[in-house]
UniProtKB/TrEMBL annotation:
Annotated GGDEF domain residues: 177-301
Name of the protein this chain belongs to: EAL domain-containing protein
Entries under Gene3D superfamilies matching the protein: 3.30.70.270, EAL domain (3.20.20.450), PAS domain (3.30.450.20)
Lineage of source species: Bacteria, Bacillati, Bacillota, Bacilli, Lactobacillales
Superkingdom in the source lineage: Bacteria
Pfam families reported in the protein's UniProt record: EAL, GGDEF
Length: 562
């Protein structure tokens, strides 16, 4: 659509009108300013050229940040003709104005030469001396509109919060109060509904709404959705009010099936988006989880940072495998006698194109939390098999590689057969793959795991117990399961340098017991020559740790990638 051009005379007539007015046209989805009156330029203390340029760049460039969301909402409805009326109060300030002034803007659609235009009329309401009253009147006008009101509790709803929430924050600031946001959730509401029916559940929601309104004398209460409420109020005394509400709700519900949970966010001066504010309060509340000992959690930005990190790894996990961001690093396992590599342990590393090499402490817990370890472990197994096959094809001296499997892996159907088929299909000897299972995972499985361990060993795979001594039933595990090697937990090695002689007594005894059972031993976490020498004297078969090498990436020629 082309821009409508006024005749020179008509433009002069419009610009000379003794009222603040601007005419806009939507062209290819963008709002263009056709003209502004001299009076509007005078009101805003800005030249016509600068005003038009700024309006074309952004309709909200001079608007108070707290009012932008509301203006955008009604502006979009007006531009789309879904609401023919535009009647908005907001604050406006250009660089030459001393402070924000409250403007009242009304608009109508006008068709000229077949083109629909928006005629906007502006009045400076500053002279009335009732700024807050103007905002309150406008606020209450929409608060009583059924479109913005929850039908059950008659409280302002989520739509009202989205449009007017920052206005309420602004009112608290103007009243010299520090604003906070509180989210309120009824934990166990579905159980309550099942026990007593939906009608009684609705009465409970209504009762909570009335309780919140009674207690919150400054600010506003909103029925966000379902059994979630939100409060914007002053910070002073808010925690005591929350405690009072919590107690009164217990009296109201008279049932231990339900309880209130609160999330508290201290609104900052640079917060400009009400939904971001609500999200932060809600994030704090979610930290309570199922812990009935807590009813209030305050927002911690570090927790949100963790959530963002978690989301990043979850959203990119499949891509990391497809695009080989995930790769195998290899740490040598050395003979205690010769101190030369006898095997390697394969460890997962995430090489991110934007973040660089990511610590496994950042992504492994996320994968474990969301039960994705099977996919990572199978990916790592295939990476190791591929490396071993390449090294074999090049005639290199092959060393066995241990891979880690989690207890959840053994719950997948036909796991043992899959491992065996992958190794056999690659033409590798089964002695080249060692299977590591952590001691803590043994307590999470029953006789089925023992059968699978025996099946792996029957195929020719060695099975190792990782982190031996980290649990409470290490010796029982040696009796219940058949292992070829135990890896003594690195905490034993780390505390060898302590004044307490306990670990210096325990490690040789662990080695003796293992050897009596025909089980080899490996001590991990070896970092000093003194630790190495002690472990050699204790009779350990293998040693692993930074003293020999950190985990490194190995290329197709078995050389470390630097």
């Amino acid at each position: 659509m082309k821009k409508l051009e006024f005749s020179e005379q008509r433009r002069k007539d419009y610009e000379a009108l003794p009222t603040g007015m601007a005419i806009y046209q939507v062209i290819d989805g963008k709002i263009k300013t056709l003209l502004v009156t001299d009076k509007l330029c005078e009101m805003l203390k800005i030249s016509r050229e600068d005003l038009v340029a700024n309006l074309d760049k952004s309709m909200f460039g001079f608007v108070h940040p707290d009012d932008v969301g509301r203006m955008a909402y009604f502006g979009k409805k007006f531009a789309a003709h879904s609401d023919e009326k535009y009647d908005v109060f907001y604050r406006w300030k250009t660089p030459n104005m001393d402070d924000f002034h409250i403007f009242h803007s009304v608009a109508n659609h006008v068709v000229i030469d077949g083109v629909t235009l928006g005629f906007f009329f502006y009045t400076d309401a500053e002279e009335s001396g009732k700024n807050n009253q103007i905002l309150d009147t406008h606020y209450q006008k929409y608060a009583n509109d059924q479109m913005y009101q929850d039908r059950l509790t008659h409280l302002p709803n989520r739509r009202f919060l989205e449009i007017f929430g920052m206005e309420e924050v602004s009112k608290l600031r103007l009243a010299k109060q520090h604003p906070v946001c509180v989210t309120v959730n009824i934990a166990g509401m579905s159980v309550y509904n099942n026990l007593y029916g939906l009608k009684k559940g609705d009465r409970l929601l209504q009762g909570l709404g009335e309780l919140l309104v009674k207690e919150i004398t400054e600010g506003h209460v909103y029925h966000n959705q379902d059994d979630h409420f939100l409060i914007l109020t002053a910070a002073a005394g808010v925690e005591q009010k929350i405690a009072d509400i919590h107690q009164e709700f217990s009296d109201l519900a008279q049932n231990e099936a339900v309880d209130l949970q609160f999330g508290l966010y201290d609104i900052q001066d640079d917060d400009q988006n009400i939904m971001t504010i609500a999200h932060r309060a809600n994030s704090a509340m979610k930290e309570i989880g199922h812990d009935r000992r807590l009813h209030l959690k305050k927002y911690d930005p570090a927790v949100e940072e963790e959530d963002l990190e978690e989301s990043y790894f979850l959203n990119n996990f499949s891509r990391a495998m497809d695009e080989k961001w995930l790769t195998a690093y290899f740490q040598p396992i050395c003979s205690a006698k010769t101190q030369q590599p006898a095997a390697y342990e394969a460890l997962a590393r995430w090489r991110d194109p934007n973040r660089g090499l990511v610590s496994p402490a950042s992504f492994i817990p996320v994968i474990e939390k969301h039960h994705l370890t099977y996919y990572l472990d199978m990916y790592m197994l295939w990476e190791v098999i591929s490396k071993l096959r390449t090294w074999k094809e090049r005639g290199l001296d092959l060393k066995p590689v241990s891979v880690n499997l989690a207890h959840e892996d053994f719950e997948m159907p036909h796991l043992v057969e899959k491992i065996n088929n992958l190794v056999a299909g690659a033409g590798l000897d089964r002695s080249l793959i060692k299977i590591e299972i952590t001691e803590r995972d043994l307590s999470k499985n029953t006789g089925r795991l023992q059968q699978q361990i025996d099946q792996l060993r029957a195929y020719g795979f060695e099975v190792w117990m990782d982190d031996f001594g980290s649990g409470y039933s290490s010796l029982n595990a040696l009796n219940d399961y058949h292992f070829d090697l135990i890896k003594i937990d690195m905490l034993f090695v780390r505390h060898l340098d302590d004044k307490s002689p306990l670990n210096r007594i325990l490690i040789p005894e662990i080695v003796k017991v293992a050897h009596c059972l025909g089980i080899k031993t490996l001590a991990e976490g070896v970092e000093t020559p003194e630790q190495r020498d002690f472990l050699q004297r204790a009779g350990c078969d293998y040693l692993q740790g930074f003293l020999f090498s950190k985990p490194v990436e190995l290329d197709d020629n078995l050389q470390a990638v630097l």
